[in-house]
Amino acid sequence: MPQLSVVVPVHNEEDNVAPLVDEILRALRGRIDFEIVYVDDASRDGTLARLRQLQAVTPELRVIRHLTNAGQSTAVRNGVKAARAPWIATLDGDGQNDPADIPNLLAQRDRAPADVKLFAGWRVNRQDSGSKRWASKFANAIRSRLLRDATPDTGCGIKLFEREAFLELPYFDHMHRYLPALMQRAGWQTVSVPVNHRPRSAGVSKYTNLGRALVGIRDLLGVSWLIARSRRTAIEEVRP
Known about the structure:
Helices cover 40% and strands 18% of the residues. The model has no long low-confidence stretch (mean pLDDT 90). The longest helix has 20 residues, at 209-228. The N and C termini lie far apart (38 Å). Helix 1 packs parallel to helix 2 and helix 5 (130-147) packs parallel to helix 8. The protein has a single domain (4-228), classed as Spore Coat Polysaccharide Biosynthesis Protein SpsA, Chain A. By secondary structure, it is of the alpha/beta class. GO terms for molecular function: undecaprenyl-phosphate 4-deoxy-4-formamido-L-arabinose transferase activity. This is Dolichol-phosphate mannosyltransferase.
């Protein structure tokens, strides 16, 4: 059984599939037993065909396919559910996350206390357009003030987390943007780790600043409500 599952959600990323798979292999082969779980979110281009070609020469690669488009959070969750390893690393399928950062996340995990269940990437030198960086900075500031999750960057696609802890979180669309707050709500600790970030080399973004903002307002209110209504207590088994 693998020790790590790398989950990659993709939608219409045919030109980014092969380069990213190659980078994952170069980052992890010889370091850890791993698998790669690609989740094709009903792509309409040649993404699935490229993945099938790579499967023939990449024993670590598994492919899950959505029959209808369901979005990134659903793709991540279905990938995690299909994964066989106890720990999950996620990457965006556009190639902007650097798989070479995964070994550092694993090293951070090995040094951390057992109650740290999420290591979130922090894009300290983000390679996006000025408007996207500004919108992200504004959204992060509002989110941090409202949720108090002490996380400078929740939108970064590269993360490392425990599979069991993730699957216990409440599921909703766009939940992948609120993992630190949701993990903390569940009683776990989270750590932000500086990571590399690269310009998109092929394809186009699936999000717009306006679209993110409209959805984000509703999601923020929902996550804030979840946190406010959360109750935790220690338990013990009573024996005769």
